[in-house]
What we know:
The chain is of the alpha/beta class and 268 residues long. The chain has helices at residues 29-38, 54-63, 76-87, 100-108, 131-142, 166-177, 190-199, 213-223, 237-242, 254-265; strands at 10-13, 20-21, 24-25, 42-47, 73-75, 92-97, 111-113, 121-123, 147-149, 155-158, 161-164, 182-183, 206-210, 227-230, 249-251.
Amino acid sequence: MMFDPEKIRALILDMDGVLWRGDEAIGDLPAIFTQIERLGYGVVLATNNATKSIQQFVEKLASFGVRIEPWQVINSAQATAHYLSQQHPTGGPVFIVGEKGLAEILQEKGFYVSDENPLAVIAALDRGLNYEKLRKATLFIRAGVPFIGTNPDRTFPTPEGQVPGAGSVLALLEAASEVAPLVIGKPNPVMYQFALERLGTSPEETLIVGDRLETDIAGSQQLGSPCALVLSGVTNEESAWEWEPAPDLIVADLANVIRELKFLSGKK
């Protein structure tokens, strides 16, 4: 697929490593979002981070001076809840290895946390992880309860460096249970498909921006959307140029994505 900057009508942005590292913004976010709006691009944020509710993401962006509506945010917990609701329309009990944000999003679809006859084991990043939770999850999975992972990211960027992510938790449970999880988040393109529906654009009209090759870029290429890799997160320049097929843009950060897009599209 040829990348045609003049066709781009909207952006799908990752968050960790693109907008921030931990609690530190990457660049002047208010100025960047003002420029995106001025250029006429629609925006949806799509993240594999399943630890926060949608409202928490909205509030975090507000703390950086950026106003985003809840409909503009999609995370892997939301995509997982949607998948589960298709399998179990009336909801029911689930066992989670995850945090409060995941539980809240599942509850919106009628699922509640329980260790009695769960319909599925849902695993994500869990910074309160303990052996008892792992023990129960492993036994459920070995007994045949479906094992679902929100996302495969083994690490995520912080100001101190890369730290364990949901993928590390999935790897631990897979090793203990000898069962591979069904992973809903990127690179599974389901979140991007949600985003396109909300934006009202086609894959060819939507530039996807991320910092991780094996999730953001792989997912966008599966979808058939042009993609931009930023080097402000977990990927270095050497790895970026080794990826096949190469991302359409490889730049330092989101500000440079917008600068390149403006130049290549001829927008004023």
